[in-house]
Fold:
Amino acid sequence: MKLATLRPSVVLVAAGVAVAIAAYVRWSDRSEVTDSRSQDSHGSTTSLAAPVRPARPPVPGRDTPRRPAEPLPPPLAPGELAEVYESAVAAGEARPGERAFRANVTAFIQYNKAFAEDQANREGLSVAEVQELTYLGFLVKQTQSWSEVEELIGHDLSPDQRQAGEKLMHDINSAFKAAMRQLVADGADPAHRWDLIRATTKRYKDDYFAITGMNPDLLDDLLAGDLRREYSPSVTPVPDEIPHNPDYRPPSERPERGE
Amino acid sequence: MRKVLFAGVIVLVLGSFNTHSMSEQYVEEQQYVEYYRDNLFLGLAYHRVGCLTNWTTIRSSQDYDGFTTKRYCYYGATADSVPDASWYDWNYATGKAQLDACGLRANNRYGTPNYASSSNSCNYNILFDCNSDCWIREFSTCQGWRVSIASPCW
Structure:
């Protein structure tokens, strides 16, 4: 068919179809990135606990990263956790360090309740279980503080001991997650899930103590030390930029003798 | 007139597809830093790590993290996840040298030479400072896009 024989309406329809195709190609290329970013950034349609990775590579000049929502530290008053520790000591509690450490994790979960609920929904757990598992996660990470562990046990750990301690954390973490997800998939009773949590905590502590020479009392000191360092000058880094005191006046020069 | 109109349609369609393919070609050469979180015990405690990628695969076996010896970034592995961790953020990268420079800066800040598993200069504090959260914040800030973390990092 000669082009000249085409009717104007046919050409216009073809042009319209072509424009539609072109628009769709460009739109689909863009939307796969921008939509997923906005979803994971604002958490409105995707899980807070699992930001969604854009299916297509972001393109410079077109796509920009957006910070996904994350759990944040709770606004605690200075000394608040130390007061929990001191009150536990005054009450004669056996594990004041753990008490205060738990108080911090509780505040963390309460402040980030939406994240805890989201994580619980994703994994088929209760918020109370997520809180206990967050406590376990923070506790386990704290026990990997080798320099402080060495201070508590009074001698250096060998590289093999440090490596074994870290491997223990990863091994038990992986085994726990697989076992818990299996329990959830099997529809296990919550009591069985709590049994698994307690057994995992005990197993980690027992094996960790065997590797490092730590014990329950020293572990409590480790947790307490974490709290008592709050705002400690020895661990609080100097801010990058310290504002000058507006009232500062340079001292006058020392008078020379006889002036 | 019809010839001109028809030619315009052809140019529009071909141009659109050509722009699309050029875009694909360009992004294949673009590099990124992608961030992943290793969830501990299904709670809200994480270890965080960055990898150099081209969005399709990981382009360096260097883990950009501190306070652990666990390996995450394997050259050639797919970039949508790393072992035991889930994806959570990204930024453009100019290449490995950029990430290495920021890794060095974070290592110096937190006393983790060569991405050591513990600090030799600050007291590890899992809830507040001197931890892997703060390390990745220092790294990502240097790199150009500060990721969110759960520690205040005094």
In short: The first helix of chain B runs from residue 2 to 29. Residues 29-143 of chain B form one domain.
